[in-house]
Amino acid sequence: MRFRHPDGSTVHLAYCTNVHPAETLDGVLAQLRDHCEPVRRRLGRDRLGIGLWLAKDAARALVTDPAALRGLRCELERRGLEVVTLNGFPYEGFGAEEVKYRVYRPDWADPERLEHTAALARVLAGLLPDDVTEGSISTLPLAWRTAYDDERAETARTALRTLAERLDALEELTGRSVRVALEPEPGCVVETTRDAIAPLTAVGRDRIGICVDTCHLATSFEDPGTALDDLVRAGVPVVKSQLSAALHAEQPHLPEVREALAAFAEPRFLHQTRSATAAGLHGTDDLDEALAGDALPDADPWRSHFHVPLHAAPAAPLTSTLPVLTSALTRLVGGRHPLTRHLEVETYTWQALPPELRPRGRAQLADGIAAELTLARDLLTDLGLKELP
Predict the structure, then answer these.
(1) DSSP letters for 263-295
(2) Mean pLDDT of the chain
(3) CA dihedral defined by 73, 240, 177, 108, rounded to 10 degrees?
(4) pLDDT tens digits, residue range 17-58?
(5) Phi and psi dihedrals of 255, rounded to 5?
(6) Which positions ≥6 away from 168 have C-beta within 8 Å?
(7) What is the pLDDT of residue 147?
(8) How far apart are the C-alpha atoms of 318 and 321, rounded to whole Å?
(9) pLDDT, position 150
């Protein structure tokens, strides 16, 4: 979906296909047919943006076979879909029964991460619509915080500088500009937007910026206006933003609140949980850890890294951090000029919701994704952006 900003620029809205895990190119093609096109039809649009997630095997197939890349581009066009952004965070196995800490490997100190991201950039340059010259890729925020020492930090910085050089060369070759964005996430070396400033300044390249995920922003209790103003002052580009909402518990000390939270503790994904107290931010790596005894102070609200559907806040006594998303979006695209032109709804946890909230079949999932995009569209038009055909 495309929108005209009052300054005349085009803002793109997509939804991320990591909600439909597939490891192979054939799986990606099936996603377009079984999920993405049905969502587009529910929205009544001739064109729908999708943020593709390409696992390593799918990316490798596309980058080594020009015919396969042309075939994917043709299939996108045939089904009324377009791609301006990729999710390069998960490397493989995102559809596994247990993902947890595996999603952070390989990190930016491992050569596989550089090669995979460079391959994604080449693929994206070949998928961009004819009238679009700028693409974006979100990626892991350097590494999970453990086993990350000064030597690995320098290796990661070198890898990002090398990537920037390759992206420069790619633009010279293709005329397409691709930028990569570190995506701050609780528990990682870069947990907050503020944590991103020093390493990105050290890399010193406009090709490498930040992806503001509003679920992660909220989980770490960051104020959207302050966070984004800090990035602007530091000259760190906001390459893209993922529109998402976290799980919020106002009174986690109450038994009924803990019981409601326990329904969201599940074995597949990591749900880092945080509490902002007068003494600072406290956290656990997962929701079940927070619920076990006194691992996390419970006199103040909790937020958990669980991407809840934008249009469907959980039932009381829980809620979502949709107001944080709304505030961030106002700062991102509500000013005289947008801070970013790539927006992506990323709710990959539909099938990890408590059983009674999960969609039953493809049709219900498509309905839910379309409802999320409708909400995002309405937020954008309320800010003065005009939806384009």
Answers:
(1) TT--SSS---EEEEETTEEEEESSHHHHHSTTS
(2) 97
(3) -100
(4) 999 989 999 999 999 999 999 999 999 999 999 999 999 999
(5) -60, -40
(6) 207
(7) 86
(8) 10
(9) 95
- Helix (H) or strand (E) holding 185, with range, is none
Q: Can you say how many angstroms the Cα of residue 52 is from the centroid of all Cα atoms in its chain?
A: 11
- In DSSP notation, 294-318 reads TSS--SS-EEEEEEE-TT-PPPTTE
**At residue 368, what is the residue type?**
G
- DSSP annotation of 33 reads I
End-to-end CA distance of the chain: 8
* 308 beta partners: 245
pLDDT, tens digit, for every residue of 239-273?
Answer: 999 999 999 999 999 999 999 999 999 999 999 99
Can you state the percent helix, strand and coil of the chain, rounding each to 5? Answer: 45, 20, 35
Q: pLDDT at position 326, please? A: 98
How many other CB atoms sit within 10 Å of the CB of residue 240?
31
Q: Which residues contact 133 (CB under 8 A, 6 or more apart)?
A: 175, 176, 177
Q: Are strands 81-87 and 134-139 parallel, antiparallel or unpaired?
A: parallel
Q: Report whether pLDDT(137) > 90.
A: yes
pLDDT at 215: 98
- Asked if 43 contacts 373 with a C-beta cutoff of 8 angstroms, the reply is yes
Amino acid at 36: C
Distances (CA, A) of 242 to 60, 85, 258, 292: 25, 11, 28, 31
Which are the contacts of 97, defined by CB distance < 8 A and separation ≥ 6?
267, 268
Quote the pTM value: 0.97
Ranges 21-25, 26-30, 162-166, 327-331: which has the least confidence:
21-25
Buried-state track 288-320, b at ≥16 Cβ within 10 A, e below 16: bbbbeeebbebebbbbbbbbbbbbbbbeebbbb
The pair of structure tokens assigned to 314 is 């959980």
For 71, what's the count of Cα atoms within 13 Å in the CB-facing half-sphere? Answer: 11
pLDDT score for 372: 98
DSSP string spanning 52-114? Answer: EE--HHHHHHHHH-HHHHHHHHHHHHHTTEEEEEEE-S--S-TTSS--GGGGG-S-TTSHHHH
Q: How far apart are CA 326 and CA 343, in angstroms?
A: 13
Q: Compute the chain's Rg from CA coordinates.
A: 20
Residue with tokens 């890898």, as numbered in its chain: 159
* Residue pair 182/195 in contact by the 8 Å Cβ criterion: no
